[in-house]
Amino acid sequence: xxxxxxxxxxxxxxxxxxxxxxxxxxxxxxxxTSLHKYVPQGVIVSTCNRTEVYTLADQDYVKSxxxxxxxxxxxxxxxxxxxxxxxYTYQSEDAARHLFRVASGLESMILGEYEVLGQVRTALEKAxxxxxxxxxxxxxxxxxxxxxxxxxxxxxxxxxxxSVSSAAVDLSRKCFPNLAECDVLVISAGEAAMLAVxxxxxxxxxxxxxxxxxxxxxxxxxxxxxGQAVAFHLLGQALSSASIVVSCSGAPHxxxxxxxxxxxxKTRPDRKLLLLDIAVPRDVNPEVKSIPxxxxxxxxxxxxxxxxxxxxxxxxxxxxxxIVEAETKDFSGWWKALEVRPTITALVGKAEKIRQAELxxxxxxxxxxxxxxxxxxxxxxxxxxxKLLHDxxxxxxNGGLHENHIQVLRELFELHDDGQxxxxxxxxx
Length: 429
Known about the structure:
With 429 residues, the chain is an alpha/beta fold. The protein has 17 helices and ten strands. It folds into three domains: 2-159, Glutamyl-tRNA reductase, N-terminal domain (Beta Polymerase, domain 2); 164-308, 3-Layer(aba) Sandwich (Rossmann fold); 338-428, no CATH class. Strands 7-6-5-8-9-10 form a six-stranded parallel β-sheet, with helices on both faces. Strands 2-3-1-4 form a four-stranded antiparallel β-sheet.
Protein backbone atom coordinates (compact mmCIF):
# COMPACT_ATOMS: atom_id res chain seq x y z
CA UNK A 1 0.00 0.00 0.00
CA UNK A 2 1.11 3.54 -0.73
CA UNK A 3 -0.03 6.96 0.44
CA UNK A 4 -1.76 9.03 -2.21
CA UNK A 5 -2.64 12.72 -2.06
CA UNK A 6 -4.56 14.32 -4.92
CA UNK A 7 -6.03 17.80 -5.10
CA UNK A 8 -5.78 21.38 -6.25
CA UNK A 9 -4.97 24.68 -4.55
CA UNK A 10 -4.49 28.40 -5.09
CA UNK A 11 -1.17 27.74 -6.80
CA UNK A 12 -2.59 25.43 -9.45
CA UNK A 13 -6.20 26.54 -9.96
CA UNK A 14 -8.12 29.85 -10.11
CA UNK A 15 -10.98 30.45 -7.72
CA UNK A 16 -13.62 29.70 -10.36
CA UNK A 17 -12.26 26.14 -10.51
CA UNK A 18 -11.57 25.72 -6.79
CA UNK A 19 -15.07 26.76 -5.83
CA UNK A 20 -16.53 23.93 -7.93
CA UNK A 21 -14.93 21.31 -5.68
CA UNK A 22 -14.81 23.28 -2.42
CA UNK A 23 -16.61 21.80 0.58
CA UNK A 24 -17.95 23.48 3.68
CA UNK A 25 -17.50 21.77 7.03
CA UNK A 26 -21.13 20.67 6.85
CA UNK A 27 -20.65 19.04 3.45
CA UNK A 28 -17.57 16.98 4.26
CA UNK A 29 -19.53 14.14 5.89
CA UNK A 30 -21.63 13.60 2.78
CA UNK A 31 -18.54 13.89 0.58
CA UNK A 32 -16.72 11.24 2.62
CA THR A 33 -19.64 8.86 2.15
CA SER A 34 -19.39 9.45 -1.58
CA LEU A 35 -15.59 9.05 -1.50
CA HIS A 36 -15.98 5.58 0.02
CA LYS A 37 -17.48 4.41 -3.29
CA TYR A 38 -14.15 5.14 -4.98
CA VAL A 39 -11.51 4.25 -2.38
CA PRO A 40 -11.52 2.10 0.78
CA GLN A 41 -10.68 4.97 3.13
CA GLY A 42 -9.77 8.63 2.93
CA VAL A 43 -9.61 12.10 4.45
CA ILE A 44 -10.72 15.30 2.71
CA VAL A 45 -9.00 18.61 3.48
CA SER A 46 -11.04 21.50 2.08
CA THR A 47 -10.24 25.16 2.76
CA CYS A 48 -10.75 28.40 0.87
CA ASN A 49 -7.51 27.73 -0.98
CA ARG A 50 -7.42 23.96 -1.47
CA THR A 51 -9.35 20.73 -1.75
CA GLU A 52 -7.23 17.61 -1.24
CA VAL A 53 -8.01 13.93 -0.81
CA TYR A 54 -5.65 11.65 1.11
CA THR A 55 -6.12 7.94 0.64
CA LEU A 56 -4.29 4.62 0.24
CA ALA A 57 -3.36 3.21 -3.13
CA ASP A 58 -3.02 -0.51 -3.68
CA GLN A 59 -0.45 -2.06 -5.99
CA ASP A 60 -2.22 -0.47 -8.96
CA TYR A 61 -1.32 3.11 -8.02
CA VAL A 62 -2.61 4.61 -11.28
CA LYS A 63 -6.01 2.98 -10.80
CA SER A 64 -6.33 4.52 -7.31
CA UNK A 65 -5.20 7.89 -8.62
CA UNK A 66 -7.80 7.84 -11.40
CA UNK A 67 -10.53 6.77 -8.96
CA UNK A 68 -9.72 9.68 -6.64
CA UNK A 69 -9.74 12.10 -9.57
CA UNK A 70 -13.14 10.78 -10.67
CA UNK A 71 -14.48 11.43 -7.19
CA UNK A 72 -13.51 15.11 -7.33
CA UNK A 73 -14.83 15.38 -10.88
CA UNK A 74 -18.19 13.76 -10.23
CA UNK A 75 -18.76 15.29 -6.81
CA UNK A 76 -17.89 18.75 -8.12
CA UNK A 77 -19.82 18.16 -11.35
CA UNK A 78 -16.90 19.24 -13.46
CA UNK A 79 -15.70 17.09 -16.37
CA UNK A 80 -12.45 15.35 -15.58
CA UNK A 81 -10.80 16.73 -18.72
CA UNK A 82 -11.50 20.26 -17.41
CA UNK A 83 -10.36 19.44 -13.89
CA UNK A 84 -7.26 17.34 -14.62
CA UNK A 85 -4.95 20.21 -15.70
CA UNK A 86 -5.28 21.77 -12.24
CA UNK A 87 -4.69 18.62 -10.19
CA TYR A 88 -1.48 17.55 -8.49
CA THR A 89 -0.60 14.26 -6.86
CA TYR A 90 1.86 13.22 -4.18
CA GLN A 91 2.90 9.67 -3.44
CA SER A 92 4.23 7.89 -0.35
CA GLU A 93 6.75 10.03 1.58
CA ASP A 94 6.02 13.08 -0.61
CA ALA A 95 2.33 12.87 0.34
CA ALA A 96 3.19 12.89 4.05
CA ARG A 97 5.62 15.77 3.55
CA HIS A 98 2.98 17.79 1.68
CA LEU A 99 0.39 17.32 4.43
CA PHE A 100 2.91 18.38 7.08
CA ARG A 101 3.71 21.49 5.00
CA VAL A 102 0.00 22.26 4.73
CA ALA A 103 -0.51 21.92 8.49
CA SER A 104 2.54 24.14 9.07
CA GLY A 105 1.22 26.93 6.86
CA LEU A 106 3.99 26.62 4.28
CA GLU A 107 1.50 25.92 1.49
CA SER A 108 -0.93 28.71 2.43
CA MET A 109 -1.57 31.89 0.49
CA ILE A 110 -0.75 33.74 3.71
CA LEU A 111 2.55 32.17 4.75
CA GLY A 112 2.21 30.59 8.16
CA GLU A 113 -1.52 31.23 8.56
CA TYR A 114 -2.87 29.60 11.70
CA GLU A 115 -6.40 28.67 10.58
CA VAL A 116 -5.23 25.83 8.34
CA LEU A 117 -4.09 23.79 11.34
CA GLY A 118 -7.64 23.80 12.68
CA GLN A 119 -8.93 22.83 9.24
CA VAL A 120 -6.59 19.83 9.11
CA ARG A 121 -7.79 18.82 12.58
CA THR A 122 -11.42 19.19 11.48
CA ALA A 123 -10.73 17.04 8.39
CA LEU A 124 -9.45 14.26 10.66
CA GLU A 125 -12.41 14.56 13.04
CA LYS A 126 -14.89 14.37 10.18
CA ALA A 127 -13.19 11.30 8.71
CA UNK A 128 -13.11 9.60 12.12
CA UNK A 129 -16.77 10.45 12.64
CA UNK A 130 -17.63 8.85 9.31
CA UNK A 131 -15.64 5.72 10.13
CA UNK A 132 -13.62 6.14 6.95
CA UNK A 133 -10.13 6.55 8.35
CA UNK A 134 -7.95 3.88 9.93
CA UNK A 135 -4.25 3.16 10.18
CA UNK A 136 -2.05 4.36 8.61
CA UNK A 137 -4.01 7.49 7.54
CA UNK A 138 -5.17 7.99 11.11
CA UNK A 139 -1.60 8.16 12.34
CA UNK A 140 -0.59 10.41 9.43
CA UNK A 141 -3.18 13.07 10.29
CA UNK A 142 -2.60 12.86 14.02
CA UNK A 143 1.08 13.47 13.38
CA UNK A 144 0.22 16.33 10.99
CA UNK A 145 -1.69 18.09 13.78
CA UNK A 146 1.27 17.60 16.11
CA UNK A 147 3.64 18.95 13.46
CA UNK A 148 1.47 22.05 13.03
CA UNK A 149 1.48 22.69 16.77
CA UNK A 150 5.22 22.12 17.01
CA UNK A 151 5.89 24.59 14.19
CA UNK A 152 3.84 27.29 15.91
CA UNK A 153 5.53 26.59 19.26
CA UNK A 154 9.12 26.47 18.01
CA UNK A 155 9.10 29.10 15.24
CA UNK A 156 7.56 32.50 14.53
CA UNK A 157 6.04 31.51 11.19
CA UNK A 158 2.60 32.54 12.49
CA UNK A 159 3.75 35.66 14.33
CA UNK A 160 1.14 38.46 14.46
CA UNK A 161 -1.58 36.04 13.41
CA UNK A 162 -1.79 37.03 9.77
CA SER A 163 -4.69 35.46 7.90
CA VAL A 164 -6.85 35.93 4.85
CA SER A 165 -9.07 38.13 6.99
CA SER A 166 -6.24 40.38 8.15
CA ALA A 167 -5.01 40.62 4.57
CA ALA A 168 -8.49 41.84 3.70
CA VAL A 169 -8.08 44.56 6.31
CA ASP A 170 -4.81 45.65 4.71
CA LEU A 171 -6.54 45.90 1.36
CA SER A 172 -9.35 47.94 2.97
CA ARG A 173 -6.79 50.36 4.35
CA LYS A 174 -5.37 50.89 0.87
CA CYS A 175 -8.80 51.85 -0.44
CA PHE A 176 -9.85 53.85 2.64
CA PRO A 177 -6.83 55.33 4.46
CA ASN A 178 -9.04 56.44 7.38
CA LEU A 179 -10.86 53.29 8.41
CA ALA A 180 -12.42 55.06 11.38
CA GLU A 181 -14.79 56.76 8.95
CA CYS A 182 -15.90 53.48 7.39
CA ASP A 183 -18.88 51.35 8.31
CA VAL A 184 -18.19 47.69 7.70
CA LEU A 185 -20.70 44.97 6.92
CA VAL A 186 -19.66 41.35 7.52
CA ILE A 187 -21.86 38.73 5.90
CA SER A 188 -21.70 35.42 7.82
CA ALA A 189 -21.13 34.46 11.42
CA GLY A 190 -18.72 31.58 10.92
CA GLU A 191 -15.05 31.23 11.80
CA ALA A 192 -13.80 33.33 8.89
CA ALA A 193 -16.30 36.05 9.82
CA MET A 194 -15.15 35.98 13.44
CA LEU A 195 -11.55 36.48 12.34
CA ALA A 196 -12.57 39.29 9.99
CA VAL A 197 -14.55 41.10 12.69
CA UNK A 198 -11.68 40.88 15.17
CA UNK A 199 -9.18 42.15 12.60
CA UNK A 200 -11.45 45.02 11.57
CA UNK A 201 -12.13 46.04 15.16
CA UNK A 202 -8.40 46.01 15.91
CA UNK A 203 -7.83 48.18 12.83
CA UNK A 204 -10.14 50.82 14.30
CA UNK A 205 -12.99 50.83 11.77
CA UNK A 206 -16.15 52.78 12.49
CA UNK A 207 -19.38 50.87 12.92
CA UNK A 208 -19.35 47.10 12.46
CA UNK A 209 -22.51 45.45 11.17
CA UNK A 210 -22.89 41.67 11.13
CA UNK A 211 -25.58 39.78 9.27
CA UNK A 212 -26.25 36.11 8.85
CA UNK A 213 -29.19 33.83 8.15
CA UNK A 214 -28.97 33.04 11.87
CA UNK A 215 -29.66 36.33 13.64
CA UNK A 216 -28.67 34.90 17.03
CA UNK A 217 -25.23 33.96 15.73
CA UNK A 218 -24.81 37.36 14.11
CA UNK A 219 -25.79 39.07 17.37
CA UNK A 220 -23.37 36.95 19.39
CA UNK A 221 -20.51 37.78 17.03
CA UNK A 222 -21.34 41.49 16.89
CA UNK A 223 -21.61 41.84 20.65
CA UNK A 224 -18.07 40.57 21.11
CA UNK A 225 -16.63 43.57 19.26
CA UNK A 226 -19.16 46.25 20.08
CA GLY A 227 -20.87 45.83 16.72
CA GLN A 228 -24.49 45.59 15.69
CA ALA A 229 -26.39 42.63 14.27
CA VAL A 230 -28.61 43.14 11.23
CA ALA A 231 -31.44 40.83 10.22
CA PHE A 232 -30.63 39.09 6.95
CA HIS A 233 -33.75 40.40 5.23
CA LEU A 234 -32.42 43.94 5.82
CA LEU A 235 -29.23 43.17 3.88
CA GLY A 236 -30.13 45.73 1.19
CA GLN A 237 -30.30 48.57 3.71
CA ALA A 238 -27.02 47.57 5.27
CA LEU A 239 -25.37 47.56 1.83
CA SER A 240 -26.51 51.14 1.28
CA SER A 241 -24.75 52.40 4.40
CA ALA A 242 -21.56 50.31 4.39
CA SER A 243 -18.26 51.38 2.87
CA ILE A 244 -16.70 47.91 3.14
CA VAL A 245 -18.39 44.54 2.82
CA VAL A 246 -16.60 41.36 3.84
CA SER A 247 -18.52 38.31 2.67
CA CYS A 248 -17.63 34.78 3.69
CA SER A 249 -20.92 32.92 3.99
CA GLY A 250 -19.92 29.62 2.42
CA ALA A 251 -23.24 29.49 0.56
CA PRO A 252 -23.22 27.25 -2.54
CA HIS A 253 -24.44 30.15 -4.70
CA UNK A 254 -24.02 33.92 -5.13
CA UNK A 255 -25.74 35.90 -2.40
CA UNK A 256 -24.86 39.31 -3.90
CA UNK A 257 -25.52 39.99 -7.57
CA UNK A 258 -25.64 43.03 -9.84
CA UNK A 259 -29.26 43.78 -8.99
CA UNK A 260 -28.66 43.94 -5.25
CA UNK A 261 -25.52 46.05 -5.57
CA UNK A 262 -27.07 48.40 -8.15
CA UNK A 263 -30.00 49.04 -5.83
CA UNK A 264 -27.66 49.80 -2.95
CA UNK A 265 -25.56 52.18 -5.07
CA LYS A 266 -28.58 54.24 -6.08
CA THR A 267 -28.58 55.78 -2.60
CA ARG A 268 -24.83 56.51 -2.63
CA PRO A 269 -23.69 56.88 -6.26
CA ASP A 270 -20.63 58.98 -5.42
CA ARG A 271 -19.35 56.82 -2.56
CA LYS A 272 -17.07 53.85 -3.17
CA LEU A 273 -18.19 50.41 -2.09
CA LEU A 274 -15.43 47.89 -1.44
CA LEU A 275 -16.54 44.26 -1.65
CA LEU A 276 -14.12 41.69 -0.23
CA ASP A 277 -15.33 38.24 -1.17
CA ILE A 278 -13.22 35.76 0.81
CA ALA A 279 -15.65 32.89 0.38
CA VAL A 280 -15.07 29.76 -1.67
CA PRO A 281 -17.47 29.20 -3.39
CA ARG A 282 -17.69 32.93 -4.05
CA ASP A 283 -20.51 34.99 -2.55
CA VAL A 284 -20.41 37.88 -5.03
CA ASN A 285 -21.16 37.65 -8.73
CA PRO A 286 -18.10 38.99 -10.62
CA GLU A 287 -20.47 41.00 -12.84
CA VAL A 288 -20.74 43.66 -10.12
CA LYS A 289 -17.30 44.93 -11.18
CA SER A 290 -19.02 46.77 -14.02
CA ILE A 291 -20.99 48.97 -11.61
CA PRO A 292 -19.43 52.44 -11.14
CA UNK A 293 -17.63 53.01 -7.80
CA UNK A 294 -17.86 49.34 -6.89
CA UNK A 295 -14.55 47.57 -6.17
CA UNK A 296 -14.61 43.79 -5.91
CA UNK A 297 -11.74 41.60 -4.72
CA UNK A 298 -11.99 37.84 -4.31
CA UNK A 299 -9.75 35.40 -2.46
CA UNK A 300 -7.20 35.25 -5.28
CA UNK A 301 -6.87 39.04 -5.34
CA UNK A 302 -5.48 38.86 -1.82
CA UNK A 303 -2.30 37.22 -3.12
CA UNK A 304 -0.68 40.61 -3.73
CA UNK A 305 -1.39 41.70 -0.17
CA UNK A 306 -0.18 38.39 1.22
CA UNK A 307 3.10 38.67 -0.66
CA UNK A 308 3.78 42.06 0.92
CA UNK A 309 3.30 40.46 4.35
CA UNK A 310 5.52 37.53 3.49
CA UNK A 311 9.01 38.99 3.71
CA UNK A 312 9.43 39.12 7.48
CA UNK A 313 8.24 35.51 7.79
CA UNK A 314 10.58 34.14 5.17
CA UNK A 315 13.36 33.91 7.75
CA UNK A 316 11.33 31.24 9.58
CA UNK A 317 10.77 29.05 6.52
CA UNK A 318 14.09 27.25 6.93
CA UNK A 319 13.31 26.36 10.54
CA UNK A 320 9.85 25.11 9.62
CA UNK A 321 11.18 23.10 6.69
CA UNK A 322 13.73 21.42 8.96
CA ILE A 323 10.94 20.40 11.35
CA VAL A 324 8.82 19.09 8.49
CA GLU A 325 11.71 17.05 7.10
CA ALA A 326 12.50 15.52 10.49
CA GLU A 327 8.85 14.64 11.07
CA THR A 328 8.55 13.20 7.56
CA LYS A 329 11.56 10.97 8.23
CA ASP A 330 9.96 9.79 11.47
CA PHE A 331 6.70 9.00 9.72
CA SER A 332 8.49 7.18 6.91
CA GLY A 333 10.30 5.03 9.48
CA TRP A 334 7.02 4.20 11.19
CA TRP A 335 5.40 3.43 7.83
CA LYS A 336 8.22 1.09 6.75
CA ALA A 337 8.05 -0.71 10.08
CA LEU A 338 4.29 -1.06 9.66
CA GLU A 339 4.71 -2.48 6.15
CA VAL A 340 7.25 -5.11 7.16
CA ARG A 341 5.63 -6.07 10.47
CA PRO A 342 3.64 -8.99 8.98
CA THR A 343 6.79 -10.35 7.33
CA ILE A 344 8.83 -10.05 10.56
CA THR A 345 6.03 -11.66 12.57
CA ALA A 346 5.74 -14.50 10.08
CA LEU A 347 9.51 -15.04 9.91
CA VAL A 348 9.97 -15.05 13.70
CA GLY A 349 6.90 -17.23 14.14
CA LYS A 350 8.07 -19.85 11.71
CA ALA A 351 11.61 -19.88 13.13
CA GLU A 352 10.26 -20.25 16.67
CA LYS A 353 7.96 -23.09 15.70
CA ILE A 354 10.82 -24.96 14.04
CA ARG A 355 13.10 -24.29 17.05
CA GLN A 356 10.59 -25.62 19.55
CA ALA A 357 9.85 -28.69 17.45
CA GLU A 358 13.52 -29.52 17.03
CA LEU A 359 14.24 -28.81 20.71
CA UNK A 360 11.45 -31.13 21.83
CA UNK A 361 12.64 -33.89 19.49
CA UNK A 362 16.28 -33.57 20.67
CA UNK A 363 15.43 -33.52 24.37
CA UNK A 364 13.16 -36.54 23.98
CA UNK A 365 16.22 -38.53 22.87
CA UNK A 366 18.29 -37.38 25.87
CA UNK A 367 16.16 -38.26 28.90
CA UNK A 368 19.14 -38.40 31.23
CA UNK A 369 19.86 -34.68 30.89
CA UNK A 370 19.43 -32.63 34.02
CA UNK A 371 16.94 -29.78 34.13
CA UNK A 372 19.85 -27.36 34.14
CA UNK A 373 21.35 -28.89 31.00
CA UNK A 374 17.98 -28.85 29.23
CA UNK A 375 17.69 -25.15 30.02
CA UNK A 376 21.15 -24.55 28.60
CA UNK A 377 20.22 -26.26 25.34
CA UNK A 378 16.99 -24.29 25.17
CA UNK A 379 18.87 -21.01 25.72
CA UNK A 380 21.44 -21.92 23.08
CA UNK A 381 18.72 -22.71 20.48
CA UNK A 382 16.91 -19.46 21.22
CA UNK A 383 20.16 -17.49 20.97
CA UNK A 384 21.03 -19.19 17.68
CA UNK A 385 17.66 -18.26 16.13
CA UNK A 386 17.93 -14.66 17.36
CA LYS A 387 21.38 -14.21 15.88
CA LEU A 388 20.42 -15.79 12.56
CA LEU A 389 17.39 -13.51 12.23
CA HIS A 390 19.05 -10.36 13.55
CA ASP A 391 20.38 -8.99 10.24
CA UNK A 392 17.31 -9.83 8.15
CA UNK A 393 15.01 -8.19 10.70
CA UNK A 394 17.26 -5.14 11.03
CA UNK A 395 17.29 -4.68 7.25
CA UNK A 396 13.54 -5.08 7.09
CA UNK A 397 12.98 -2.44 9.78
CA ASN A 398 15.49 -0.01 8.30
CA GLY A 399 14.12 -0.27 4.79
CA GLY A 400 17.27 -2.00 3.61
CA LEU A 401 15.21 -4.35 1.47
CA HIS A 402 13.09 -3.29 -1.47
CA GLU A 403 9.51 -4.46 -1.87
CA ASN A 404 10.51 -7.13 -4.39
CA HIS A 405 13.17 -8.41 -1.95
CA ILE A 406 10.53 -8.74 0.75
CA GLN A 407 8.33 -10.73 -1.58
CA VAL A 408 11.25 -13.02 -2.47
CA LEU A 409 11.96 -13.52 1.23
CA ARG A 410 8.33 -14.47 1.87
CA GLU A 411 8.40 -16.93 -1.03
CA LEU A 412 11.73 -18.48 -0.01
CA PHE A 413 10.53 -19.12 3.54
CA GLU A 414 6.90 -19.73 2.52
CA LEU A 415 5.67 -17.18 5.04
CA HIS A 416 2.08 -16.31 5.95
CA ASP A 417 0.89 -13.29 7.93
CA ASP A 418 -0.26 -15.52 10.78
CA GLY A 419 3.28 -16.77 11.24
CA GLN A 420 2.34 -20.28 10.07
CA UNK A 421 4.28 -22.20 7.44
CA UNK A 422 2.51 -23.81 4.52
CA UNK A 423 4.16 -27.13 5.44
CA UNK A 424 4.24 -28.80 8.82
CA UNK A 425 7.43 -28.90 10.85
CA UNK A 426 7.54 -32.62 10.41
CA UNK A 427 7.69 -32.19 6.66
CA UNK A 428 10.40 -29.53 6.98
CA UNK A 429 12.43 -31.73 9.28
